[in-house]
Design goal:
With about 350 residues, this protein is α/β, with parallel strands linked by helices. It is built from eleven helices and 14 strands. It is globular and about 55 Å long.
Protein backbone atom coordinates (compact mmCIF):
# COMPACT_ATOMS: atom_id res chain seq x y z
CA UNK A 1 0.00 0.00 0.00
CA UNK A 2 1.42 3.38 -1.03
CA UNK A 3 0.19 6.30 1.07
CA UNK A 4 0.51 10.06 0.74
CA UNK A 5 0.76 11.66 4.17
CA UNK A 6 0.55 15.45 4.07
CA UNK A 7 1.99 17.48 6.94
CA UNK A 8 4.94 15.16 7.70
CA UNK A 9 7.10 17.97 9.09
CA UNK A 10 4.20 18.46 11.51
CA UNK A 11 3.58 16.74 14.81
CA UNK A 12 1.05 14.03 13.92
CA UNK A 13 2.27 13.56 10.35
CA UNK A 14 5.85 12.91 11.50
CA UNK A 15 4.76 10.20 13.94
CA UNK A 16 2.33 8.64 11.45
CA UNK A 17 4.93 8.42 8.67
CA UNK A 18 7.39 6.71 11.02
CA UNK A 19 4.78 4.20 12.16
CA UNK A 20 3.54 3.38 8.65
CA UNK A 21 7.01 2.89 7.19
CA UNK A 22 8.02 0.71 10.16
CA UNK A 23 5.14 -1.58 9.21
CA UNK A 24 6.21 -1.84 5.58
CA UNK A 25 3.94 0.76 3.98
CA UNK A 26 5.45 2.97 1.29
CA UNK A 27 5.00 6.62 2.30
CA UNK A 28 5.45 9.90 0.49
CA UNK A 29 5.45 12.79 2.93
CA UNK A 30 4.51 16.33 1.97
CA UNK A 31 4.90 19.63 3.82
CA UNK A 32 5.45 23.30 2.99
CA UNK A 33 7.45 23.83 6.22
CA UNK A 34 5.82 27.18 6.99
CA UNK A 35 6.99 29.33 9.91
CA UNK A 36 3.77 29.29 11.96
CA UNK A 37 5.97 27.93 14.76
CA UNK A 38 9.68 27.20 15.29
CA UNK A 39 10.89 25.54 12.07
CA UNK A 40 13.80 23.98 13.97
CA UNK A 41 11.28 21.50 15.36
CA UNK A 42 9.93 20.80 11.85
CA UNK A 43 13.39 20.22 10.38
CA UNK A 44 14.28 18.16 13.45
CA UNK A 45 11.33 15.84 12.77
CA UNK A 46 12.39 15.41 9.14
CA UNK A 47 16.00 14.73 10.12
CA UNK A 48 14.84 12.16 12.67
CA UNK A 49 13.00 10.45 9.79
CA UNK A 50 16.20 10.30 7.73
CA UNK A 51 15.29 13.23 5.46
CA UNK A 52 18.57 15.11 5.07
CA UNK A 53 19.05 18.40 3.28
CA UNK A 54 15.45 19.57 3.67
CA UNK A 55 16.61 23.12 4.45
CA UNK A 56 18.45 23.38 1.15
CA UNK A 57 15.98 21.34 -0.92
CA UNK A 58 14.31 23.06 -3.85
CA UNK A 59 10.56 23.35 -3.94
CA UNK A 60 8.75 20.38 -5.53
CA UNK A 61 11.80 18.08 -5.41
CA UNK A 62 11.73 14.59 -3.92
CA UNK A 63 14.09 13.64 -1.08
CA UNK A 64 14.58 9.99 -0.11
CA UNK A 65 15.10 9.05 3.55
CA UNK A 66 18.67 7.99 4.33
CA UNK A 67 17.47 5.56 7.00
CA UNK A 68 14.21 4.24 5.55
CA UNK A 69 13.89 3.30 1.86
CA UNK A 70 10.08 3.26 2.19
CA UNK A 71 9.95 7.00 2.90
CA UNK A 72 10.23 9.94 0.50
CA UNK A 73 9.54 13.63 1.16
CA UNK A 74 8.50 16.56 -1.04
CA UNK A 75 8.28 20.25 -0.14
CA UNK A 76 5.00 21.41 -1.65
CA UNK A 77 2.02 23.65 -0.90
CA UNK A 78 -1.47 22.14 -0.87
CA UNK A 79 -2.62 25.30 -2.68
CA UNK A 80 -0.33 24.46 -5.62
CA UNK A 81 -2.88 22.63 -7.76
CA UNK A 82 -0.51 21.81 -10.61
CA UNK A 83 2.12 20.50 -8.20
CA UNK A 84 -0.42 18.35 -6.34
CA UNK A 85 -1.80 17.00 -9.64
CA UNK A 86 1.70 16.06 -10.86
CA UNK A 87 2.52 14.35 -7.58
CA UNK A 88 -0.62 12.18 -7.69
CA UNK A 89 -0.11 11.29 -11.35
CA UNK A 90 3.53 10.28 -10.88
CA UNK A 91 3.34 8.44 -7.54
CA UNK A 92 0.11 6.43 -8.00
CA UNK A 93 -1.07 6.42 -4.38
CA UNK A 94 -3.49 3.86 -2.97
CA UNK A 95 -4.58 6.02 -0.05
CA UNK A 96 -4.14 9.57 1.26
CA UNK A 97 -3.97 10.87 4.83
CA UNK A 98 -4.32 14.66 4.77
CA UNK A 99 -2.94 16.12 7.99
CA UNK A 100 -1.49 19.31 6.49
CA UNK A 101 -3.44 22.42 7.46
CA UNK A 102 -3.00 25.83 8.96
CA UNK A 103 -3.36 25.00 12.63
CA UNK A 104 -4.34 27.12 15.61
CA UNK A 105 -7.62 28.51 16.90
CA UNK A 106 -6.44 31.95 18.00
CA UNK A 107 -4.19 32.53 14.96
CA UNK A 108 -7.29 32.18 12.75
CA UNK A 109 -8.80 35.28 14.37
CA UNK A 110 -5.93 37.51 13.23
CA UNK A 111 -4.91 35.68 10.01
CA UNK A 112 -8.13 34.41 8.42
CA UNK A 113 -6.96 34.31 4.80
CA UNK A 114 -4.21 31.78 5.55
CA UNK A 115 -6.89 29.31 6.70
CA UNK A 116 -8.98 29.74 3.57
CA UNK A 117 -5.98 29.08 1.32
CA UNK A 118 -4.56 26.08 3.17
CA UNK A 119 -7.63 24.45 4.70
CA UNK A 120 -10.23 25.16 2.00
CA UNK A 121 -8.39 25.70 -1.30
CA UNK A 122 -5.70 23.16 -0.39
CA UNK A 123 -8.24 20.55 0.67
CA UNK A 124 -10.17 21.06 -2.58
CA UNK A 125 -6.99 20.24 -4.51
CA UNK A 126 -6.55 17.05 -2.48
CA UNK A 127 -10.17 16.01 -3.12
CA UNK A 128 -9.86 16.67 -6.85
CA UNK A 129 -6.63 14.68 -7.13
CA UNK A 130 -8.15 11.80 -5.13
CA UNK A 131 -11.16 11.83 -7.43
CA UNK A 132 -9.11 11.74 -10.64
CA UNK A 133 -6.51 9.19 -9.52
CA UNK A 134 -8.59 6.33 -8.16
CA UNK A 135 -7.68 6.81 -4.50
CA UNK A 136 -9.18 3.97 -2.44
CA UNK A 137 -9.45 5.94 0.82
CA UNK A 138 -8.98 9.57 1.87
CA UNK A 139 -8.47 10.05 5.61
CA UNK A 140 -8.26 13.66 6.77
CA UNK A 141 -7.78 15.63 9.96
CA UNK A 142 -10.80 17.38 11.37
CA UNK A 143 -10.81 18.72 14.92
CA UNK A 144 -12.64 18.67 18.23
CA UNK A 145 -13.00 22.44 17.73
CA UNK A 146 -15.93 21.80 15.35
CA UNK A 147 -18.11 21.20 18.44
CA UNK A 148 -18.00 24.95 19.11
CA UNK A 149 -20.94 26.04 21.26
CA UNK A 150 -22.11 22.45 21.86
CA UNK A 151 -22.49 21.80 25.59
CA UNK A 152 -23.78 18.20 25.61
CA UNK A 153 -20.97 16.03 27.01
CA UNK A 154 -19.28 13.90 25.89
CA UNK A 155 -19.06 15.34 22.37
CA UNK A 156 -20.63 12.85 19.98
CA UNK A 157 -20.12 12.49 16.22
CA UNK A 158 -23.88 11.91 16.04
CA UNK A 159 -24.59 15.46 17.26
CA UNK A 160 -25.11 18.45 15.00
CA UNK A 161 -22.02 20.73 14.86
CA UNK A 162 -23.17 23.89 13.11
CA UNK A 163 -21.99 26.49 15.63
CA UNK A 164 -18.19 26.83 15.41
CA UNK A 165 -16.58 29.76 17.26
CA UNK A 166 -13.35 30.17 15.27
CA UNK A 167 -12.53 30.26 11.57
CA UNK A 168 -10.18 27.33 12.14
CA UNK A 169 -13.12 25.27 13.42
CA UNK A 170 -15.30 26.46 10.53
CA UNK A 171 -12.63 25.41 8.04
CA UNK A 172 -12.52 21.92 9.57
CA UNK A 173 -16.30 21.59 9.51
CA UNK A 174 -16.12 22.72 5.86
CA UNK A 175 -13.67 19.90 5.15
CA UNK A 176 -16.19 17.38 6.46
CA UNK A 177 -18.92 18.81 4.23
CA UNK A 178 -16.64 18.91 1.19
CA UNK A 179 -15.55 15.31 1.79
CA UNK A 180 -19.16 14.16 1.97
CA UNK A 181 -19.89 15.82 -1.36
CA UNK A 182 -17.04 13.90 -3.03
CA UNK A 183 -18.07 10.65 -1.33
CA UNK A 184 -21.60 11.16 -2.66
CA UNK A 185 -20.79 12.37 -6.17
CA UNK A 186 -17.75 10.24 -6.98
CA UNK A 187 -18.00 7.30 -4.56
CA UNK A 188 -14.71 8.37 -2.96
CA UNK A 189 -14.36 6.73 0.49
CA UNK A 190 -13.55 9.48 3.00
CA UNK A 191 -13.04 9.42 6.77
CA UNK A 192 -12.73 12.54 8.92
CA UNK A 193 -10.93 12.36 12.26
CA UNK A 194 -11.78 14.80 15.03
CA UNK A 195 -8.60 14.93 17.10
CA UNK A 196 -8.77 15.97 20.76
CA UNK A 197 -5.79 18.01 22.11
CA UNK A 198 -2.91 15.84 20.91
CA UNK A 199 0.32 15.92 22.94
CA UNK A 200 3.58 14.03 23.27
CA UNK A 201 7.24 14.03 22.10
CA UNK A 202 7.96 16.32 19.12
CA UNK A 203 4.75 18.20 20.00
CA UNK A 204 3.78 21.62 18.69
CA UNK A 205 5.50 24.67 20.25
CA UNK A 206 2.22 26.62 20.22
CA UNK A 207 0.42 24.12 22.46
CA UNK A 208 0.03 24.38 26.24
CA UNK A 209 2.36 21.52 27.21
CA UNK A 210 5.24 22.96 25.20
CA UNK A 211 4.59 26.55 26.31
CA UNK A 212 4.26 25.58 29.98
CA UNK A 213 7.40 23.42 29.96
CA UNK A 214 9.48 26.11 28.25
CA UNK A 215 8.30 28.87 30.60
CA UNK A 216 8.77 26.81 33.74
CA UNK A 217 12.32 25.79 32.79
CA UNK A 218 13.11 29.46 32.09
CA UNK A 219 11.69 30.55 35.46
CA UNK A 220 8.81 32.45 33.86
CA UNK A 221 5.11 32.52 34.73
CA UNK A 222 2.67 30.46 32.66
CA UNK A 223 -0.57 31.91 31.27
CA UNK A 224 -3.52 29.97 32.70
CA UNK A 225 -6.71 30.88 30.83
CA UNK A 226 -10.27 30.87 32.12
CA UNK A 227 -8.66 31.17 35.55
CA UNK A 228 -7.78 27.48 35.38
CA UNK A 229 -11.38 26.34 34.93
CA UNK A 230 -10.62 24.38 31.76
CA UNK A 231 -10.89 20.69 30.91
CA UNK A 232 -9.26 19.03 27.94
CA UNK A 233 -9.47 15.49 26.62
CA UNK A 234 -5.68 15.30 26.20
CA UNK A 235 -4.80 12.47 23.80
CA UNK A 236 -1.30 10.99 23.57
CA UNK A 237 0.29 10.94 20.13
CA UNK A 238 0.80 7.14 20.00
CA UNK A 239 -2.93 6.65 20.66
CA UNK A 240 -3.79 9.04 17.83
CA UNK A 241 -1.45 7.24 15.41
CA UNK A 242 -2.82 3.82 16.36
CA UNK A 243 -6.31 5.03 15.53
CA UNK A 244 -5.24 6.51 12.19
CA UNK A 245 -3.38 3.36 11.10
CA UNK A 246 -6.40 1.18 11.81
CA UNK A 247 -8.78 3.56 10.05
CA UNK A 248 -6.65 3.97 6.89
CA UNK A 249 -6.94 0.24 6.27
CA UNK A 250 -10.72 0.19 6.70
CA UNK A 251 -12.44 2.53 4.22
CA UNK A 252 -16.14 3.23 4.90
CA UNK A 253 -18.69 1.46 2.72
CA UNK A 254 -21.73 3.59 3.47
CA UNK A 255 -24.46 3.15 6.07
CA UNK A 256 -27.37 1.12 4.68
CA UNK A 257 -29.58 2.23 7.57
CA UNK A 258 -28.92 5.93 7.04
CA UNK A 259 -32.08 7.99 6.56
CA UNK A 260 -32.48 11.45 5.07
CA UNK A 261 -35.56 11.88 7.26
CA UNK A 262 -33.45 11.58 10.40
CA UNK A 263 -29.89 12.16 9.13
CA UNK A 264 -26.96 10.97 11.23
CA UNK A 265 -24.11 13.53 10.82
CA UNK A 266 -21.40 10.90 11.32
CA UNK A 267 -22.25 8.68 8.33
CA UNK A 268 -24.14 8.55 5.05
CA UNK A 269 -25.42 6.22 2.36
CA UNK A 270 -22.21 7.36 0.61
CA UNK A 271 -18.83 5.90 1.72
CA UNK A 272 -18.33 8.60 4.35
CA UNK A 273 -17.55 8.45 8.08
CA UNK A 274 -16.53 10.72 10.98
CA UNK A 275 -14.73 9.55 14.14
CA UNK A 276 -13.64 11.20 17.36
CA UNK A 277 -10.15 10.20 18.48
CA UNK A 278 -9.80 11.29 22.09
CA UNK A 279 -8.81 9.81 25.42
CA UNK A 280 -12.45 9.80 26.63
CA UNK A 281 -11.16 11.13 29.95
CA UNK A 282 -11.12 14.93 30.39
CA UNK A 283 -8.33 16.32 32.57
CA UNK A 284 -8.63 19.53 34.57
CA UNK A 285 -6.06 22.09 33.43
CA UNK A 286 -4.75 22.47 36.98
CA UNK A 287 -4.20 18.69 37.18
CA UNK A 288 -2.37 18.84 33.83
CA UNK A 289 -0.11 21.58 35.19
CA UNK A 290 0.48 19.48 38.32
CA UNK A 291 1.66 16.57 36.13
CA UNK A 292 4.15 18.91 34.43
CA UNK A 293 5.33 20.24 37.80
CA UNK A 294 5.84 16.70 39.06
CA UNK A 295 7.81 15.63 35.99
CA UNK A 296 9.98 18.77 35.92
CA UNK A 297 10.40 19.06 39.68
CA UNK A 298 9.46 22.76 39.36
CA UNK A 299 6.52 24.65 40.85
CA UNK A 300 4.77 26.79 38.22
CA UNK A 301 4.23 30.52 38.65
CA UNK A 302 0.70 31.10 37.33
CA UNK A 303 -0.66 34.14 35.54
CA UNK A 304 -4.43 33.68 35.80
CA UNK A 305 -6.34 35.08 32.80
CA UNK A 306 -9.88 35.07 31.33
CA UNK A 307 -11.04 32.73 28.56
CA UNK A 308 -9.57 33.59 25.16
CA UNK A 309 -11.71 34.41 22.13
CA UNK A 310 -12.44 31.32 20.05
CA UNK A 311 -11.66 28.92 22.92
CA UNK A 312 -14.03 26.54 24.71
CA UNK A 313 -14.01 25.67 28.44
CA UNK A 314 -14.21 21.87 28.02
CA UNK A 315 -13.71 19.05 25.55
CA UNK A 316 -14.66 15.41 26.07
CA UNK A 317 -14.69 12.77 23.31
CA UNK A 318 -17.32 10.08 22.90
CA UNK A 319 -15.33 7.30 21.19
CA UNK A 320 -18.00 4.58 21.05
CA UNK A 321 -17.91 4.44 17.23
CA UNK A 322 -14.11 4.06 17.28
CA UNK A 323 -14.41 1.18 19.75
CA UNK A 324 -17.25 -0.47 17.82
CA UNK A 325 -15.74 -0.19 14.35
CA UNK A 326 -12.00 -0.40 15.05
CA UNK A 327 -11.84 -2.31 18.35
CA UNK A 328 -9.71 0.45 19.79
CA UNK A 329 -9.74 3.12 22.50
CA UNK A 330 -6.94 5.57 23.44
CA UNK A 331 -5.67 4.85 26.95
CA UNK A 332 -2.27 6.44 27.75
CA UNK A 333 -2.38 8.04 31.25
CA UNK A 334 -1.66 11.77 31.37
CA UNK A 335 1.33 11.48 33.74
CA UNK A 336 3.03 8.94 31.48
CA UNK A 337 2.45 11.02 28.36
CA UNK A 338 3.65 14.25 30.00
CA UNK A 339 6.81 12.55 31.31
CA UNK A 340 7.60 11.22 27.81
CA UNK A 341 7.23 14.72 26.35
CA UNK A 342 9.45 16.33 28.96
CA UNK A 343 12.15 13.68 28.44
CA UNK A 344 12.11 14.50 24.70
CA UNK A 345 12.08 18.26 25.36
CA UNK A 346 15.12 18.10 27.63
CA UNK A 347 17.04 16.02 25.06
CA UNK A 348 16.06 18.18 22.04
CA UNK A 349 16.89 21.50 23.72
CA UNK A 350 19.68 20.15 25.94
CA UNK A 351 18.12 21.53 29.15
Amino acid sequence: MKILVTGTAGFIGYHLAKRLTSEGFEVVGLDNINDYYDIRVKYGRLEDSGIEGAKEATYNSILVSQTNPNYKFIKLNLEDKEGIDRLFESEKFDAVCNLAAQAGVRYSITNPNVYIQSNIVGFTNILESCRHNGIKHLVYASSSSVYGLNESMPFSVHDNVDHPISLYAASKKSNELMAHTYSHLYNLPTTGLRFFTVYGPWGRPDMALFLFTKAMLEGKAIDVYNYGNMQRDFTYIDDIVEGIVRIIQKPPKGNKNWSGKNPDPSSSVAPYKIYNIGNNNPVKLMDFIEAIEESLGIKAQKNMLPLQAGDVPSTYADVEDLIKDMGYKPSTPIKEGVANFIKWYREFYSV
